[in-house]
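Sequence, please.
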């Protein structure tokens, strides 16, 4: 029985692994278990990170709406058109208003929509399309052709992704009645870099100052001749926009539009242009043209440009010492016209002594310049809905040679693709020219009131 028991155990001996083989298998098992555990840990880390990020990131990060294309089609019922906004996903909220008979303002309420490199091409019945970002959400203004009257309503397409704007033909009276009930949406007030938001607040007049106090050094108050100076021209193109727009062309177009408004609505004012076509004129000659016709106000029209494609907004400049690096750069760019003249470029920058002498000798004109600049800034920001970058001062040669109240206006940044489109569009130019015209009108009315008061006192 003793040997038999041992014999029965012998077949089991080969099934027991050796000590070295067992250790190798055990190591392999530990490695496999460790690999599984590490994968499991990584999975939970990723899952936790996604969960935690949703607590801190806005919904826009995970549901970014992108506008890829805008198209227009004729309605199948023949009653109008349909504007289709081709989107990657449906926005949470959107709306459309009609504050003017020929203007539709669509807004992605509370949503900033991406539209990189999107350049909408307007087709009938649209004459222009302008896209603008603001804290309230991305907005799209659709300008309709004159004489075309529609009522607009919005809805999602069958796939619940694209937004459709249905335009139904209506009468002019119905369109005017609809517009009368709606306020214009002021676009273009998104935040900008701190350096571009600098405003020389020292130029803001004391609210205690009356118009007469500002003008008390002028013997008479009259406003009979306005001089409009389209910047650059001829061999000097000025700044070049992202789409090839030349500053000299934009300046001339706006100058003539402003002059046309003045001739129509203020015919008693004489309009003098420093140039009426594409020709080059020296900086000092521009001021002398105004002096020879005994101008009462000098407005130099320009368009801005910087390296950043995001900068935008209007600026109004008067003559004086620059207070910021930004002001210095703008002054250098506008004064650089001297390189096209037969002069030493060292004369590009006005000295501090020259500016001090000018201010002492022309304090009445300086005060008038500040006052008119504030009127312009108000019209741009409050009435035209433009983002104002403020009233500033720098040593502009073109203003230095004008012996009258004088300002230099930067209409916007043609280095910004959207801003460039606005400035060169029929709609944008009408908005800008109207704002400048209204400032001229208000300036004239205030001068006449003050002169009447003086005459009464005498």
């Amino acid at each position: 029985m003793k040997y038999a028991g041992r014999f029965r155990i012998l077949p089991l001996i080969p099934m027991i692994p050796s000590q070295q083989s067992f250790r190798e298998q055990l190591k392999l098992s530990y490695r496999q278990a460790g690999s599984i555990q590490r994968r499991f840990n990584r999975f939970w880390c990723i899952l936790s990170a996604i969960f935690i990020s949703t607590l801190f990131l806005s919904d826009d990060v995970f549901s970014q709406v992108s506008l890829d294309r805008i198209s227009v089609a004729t309605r199948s019922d023949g009653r109008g058109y349909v504007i289709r906004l081709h989107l990657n996903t449906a926005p949470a909220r959107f709306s459309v208003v009609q504050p003017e008979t020929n203007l539709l303002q669509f807004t992605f309420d509370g949503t900033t929509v991406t539209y990189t490199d999107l350049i909408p091409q307007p087709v009938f019945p649209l004459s222009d399309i302008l896209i603008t970002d603001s804290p309230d959400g991305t907005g799209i203004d659709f300008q309709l052709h004159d004489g075309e009257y529609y009522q607009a309503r919005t809805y999602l397409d069958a796939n619940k992704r694209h937004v459709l704007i249905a335009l139904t033909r209506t009468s002019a009276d119905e369109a005017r009645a609809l517009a009368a009930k709606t306020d214009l949406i002021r676009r273009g007030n998104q935040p900008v870099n701190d350096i571009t938001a600098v405003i020389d607040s020292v130029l803001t007049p004391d609210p205690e100052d009356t118009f007469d106090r500002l003008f008390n050094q002028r013997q008479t108050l009259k406003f009979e001749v306005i001089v409009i100076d389209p910047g650059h021209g001829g061999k000097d193109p000025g700044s070049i926009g992202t789409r090839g727009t030349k500053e000299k062309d934009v300046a001339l177009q706006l100058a003539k539009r402003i002059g046309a408004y003045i001739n129509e609505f203020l015919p008693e004012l004489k309009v003098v242009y420093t140039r009426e076509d594409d020709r080059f004129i020296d900086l000092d000659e521009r001021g002398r043209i105004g002096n020879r016709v005994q101008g009462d106000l000098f407005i130099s029209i320009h368009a801005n440009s910087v390296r950043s494609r995001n900068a935008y907004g209007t600026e109004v400049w008067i003559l004086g010492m620059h207070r910021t690096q930004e002001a210095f750069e703008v002054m250098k760019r506008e004064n650089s016209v001297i390189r096209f003249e037969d002069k030493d470029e060292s004369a590009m920058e006005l000295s501090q002594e020259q500016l001090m002498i000018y201010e002492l000798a022309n304090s009445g004109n300086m005060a008038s310049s500040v006052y008119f600049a504030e009127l312009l800034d108000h019209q741009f920001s409050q009435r035209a809905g433009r983002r104002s970058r403020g009233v500033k001062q720098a040593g502009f040669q073109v203003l230095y040679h004008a012996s009258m109240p004088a300002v230099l206006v930067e209409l916007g940044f043609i280095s910004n693709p959207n801003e460039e489109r606005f400035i060169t569009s029929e709609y944008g130019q009408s908005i800008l020219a109207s704002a400048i015209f209204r400032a001229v009108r208000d300036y004239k009315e205030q001068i006449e009131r003050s002169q009447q008061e003086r005459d009464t006192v005498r």
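The chain has a mean pLDDT of 75.
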